[in-house]
Write a structure and sequence with these properties.
- There is one protein chain.
- This protein is an all-alpha fold.
- It is built from 1 helix and no strands.
- 58% of the residues lie in helices and 0% in strands.
- The protein is rod-shaped.
- Keywords: Membrane, Transmembrane, Transmembrane helix.
- Pfam families: YbgT_YccB (PF08173).
Length: 50
């Protein structure tokens, strides 16, 4: 019966790893590149897109 716990543990670890990767990809998608030049109309550049 130990193998049931082992299979469940490996499955849970794999699921957590996949969710972790999805979370970091989502967070990375929220970031915007900050340009090195000013806007032509003088407006502010946002740090993040929400």
């Amino acid at each position: 019966m130990w193998y049931f716990a082992w299979i469940l543990g490996v499955t849970a670890a794999a699921a957590i790893a996949v969710i972790n990767v999805m979370w970091y990809e989502f967070q990375d998608g929220l970031m915007v590149a900050v340009p090195t030049h000013d806007q032509p109309d003088g407006s502010q550049i946002p740090d993040r897109v929400v």
